[in-house]
Amino acid sequence: MRELDVRYQALLQDMEGLRGQLEGELDSISLKRIMVQIQDKLISTQEIGDDKLQIVQHILDIIENRQRQLELDSKNLDFGQEPEKQEASKETQPERASKRARRTRNENAANHNENSNDAPVTPHVEKVSTSKSSAQKKATKKKKRKAKVEREREDSPTEIPIDPDEPTYCLCEQVSYGEMIGCDNDLCPIEWFHFSCVGLTNKPKGKWFCPKCRGDKPTVMKPRAQFLKELEKYNKEKEEKS
C-alpha cells in the first residue's frame, strides 16, 4: 500500500507539472502531446486505485475467514466444556450421596448402640456346648489309645511263656505270636514275620517279599545273584553267633 501511495503522489506531481505547461501558449502538436501524457497519468492513477481496492478486498476476505474460524473454535470450546460440566456435576452428586450415606450409617450405629444398651445381656451358650463336645472328643481319643496299648500288651511275647526249644522267627528273632506273614521267596532264611515288625496292619494282596529278599518294591524280589551272596553272609553270621 505504501508503494502504491508513493507512485500515486508522483503521478499527481507530474500531472501538476503538465497542467502548468497547458497555461502557456502551445501549438497544436505540443498541446496534443501534453494531453496524451495527462491521459496516461490518469490511467495509471486509476490502475493504482484498482490495485488498492483489490488489496482491501483481500484483507476483508482474510478478516471474514478469521472471524468464521474464531466462531467455530468458540463453538468447539463450548461443546467440549458441556460434557466436562456434566461430569463435574455427576462427580459432585455421588459425593453428596456418599456423605448422606455416611450420615445414615452413623445414625444407624447410634441407634444400634442405644438398642444394645437397652437390651438385656444373655449368656453365650454356644461356646459351652463346643467346649463340652471337644472334651468328649478328647475322652474318646484317650479311650482308644488305652485300648490300643492293651491290645499291644496282649500280642506282645513277654506275657507268653517261651519254650527254649521253640523256633524263633522274624527280624526280632522272637517266637510266633499274633498275626504273621510269610515271605514268598522259597530260599528266605527267616520265612515268617510279625506284622508289627515289618510295618503291616493288613495282609497285602499278591506276592510279598521281606526286607532281606525284596528289591525296590515289596512285590519285587532282588536279583538272584545278589540275594545268594547276602544269604551266604547271613548264614555265616548266624553260625558264628551260635
UniProtKB/TrEMBL annotation:
Q: Keyword annotations for this protein?
A: Chromatin regulator, Metal-binding, Nucleus, Zinc, Zinc-finger
Query: Bias regions of kind Low complexity — which residues?
Result: 107-119
Q: Where is the signal peptide?
A: none
Give residues annotated as binding Zn(2+) 2: C183, C188, C210, C213
State the GO CC annotations: nucleus
A GO BP term here is: chromatin organization
Q: Where is the composition biased (Basic residues)?
A: 138-148
* Site residues (Histone H3K4me3 binding), renumbered to this chain: Y169, M180, D184, W192
Summarize the protein's role.
Component of an histone acetyltransferase complex.
Domain comment text? The PHD-type zinc finger mediates the binding to H3K4me3.
Q: What is the protein name for this chain? A: Inhibitor of growth protein
Q: Which organism is it from?
A: Penaeus vannamei
